[in-house]
Specification:
Strand content: under 5%
GO molecular function: electron transfer activity; heme binding; metal ion binding
Shape: elongated
CATH topology of one domain: Cytochrome Bc1 Complex, Chain D, domain 2
Largest sheet: 2 strands, antiparallel
Protein name: Cytochrome c4
Organism: Massilia polaris
Keywords: Electron transport, Heme, Iron, Membrane, Metal-binding, Transmembrane, Transmembrane helix, Transport
CATH class of one domain: Mainly Alpha
Number of helices: 12
Strand order of the largest sheet: 1-2
Distance between the termini: 101 Å
Oligomer: single chain
Length: 269
Amino acid sequence: MHTKKPLSGVRGIARTSIISLIALTMGAAAVGFLLLPTAQADFRAQGIWDSICRAAGLPSKWGNPAAEDRAKPMVSTNVVLLPAMSKQARPASIGRGATLALNCTMCHGALGMSRSDAPNLAGQYPEVVIKQLMDYQSGKRENALMAALARNLTEQNIVDLAAYYASLPKARTAPTSYDETLPALVRVGDPMRNIAPCISCHGGVDQKLGAPWLEGMPKQYLVQELGAFKSGKRRNDGQQQMRNVARAMTVEEIEDVSNFYARKALPGH
């Protein structure tokens, strides 16, 4: 004869299974919604709801933002980059810019080649100079000296300065190509950290509208600006391109990339 298991035994097994399932679910939720989100370096959640939304890829706030959020400045630059900004200027504009540039020689050099830690402007793309001067003027990029110098410039003054510096020969640099041995972040970036290769935007091989020419720049200037993007102190990159890249870079990587671009200048330049 077959003996039936007592009903209480079956209920005990079912109860144990349910309790185990609940414990497993709670453990998985704790790992997915709490442990993993807090492991990210930029984690800023204020509670369990923020953690759940982060893990699920959802916004933590719906509808109208709070008053304090609306008060935060959302626009990092007022400048709209247009292809026309990069066109070759007329000689008259270059001449006017040369006169205006006399106020810039102390930091940027007589012919746009800095002997200090200020950026080289010789041969810089005109739209880059236009954008940065307009950002200094509006306060979107902060620097006490540059803000004071840019404050009284007219729109035509800015265009003329950009035309003059673009007309000057760049520093002679060693040729850049994908074939040479480059730092990994310069050549291929790091897709796993969402870091695009520097070479895809910053000249040498390719150049995106508004991305500055970096080859031969003073090393300390590059270290300073990458550090400012990393910390969020500099915020005038329109779509946060540079902040997103620099935020993921280590101090050592910033040093390596800056060294590479600074050393591109040939000896004596």
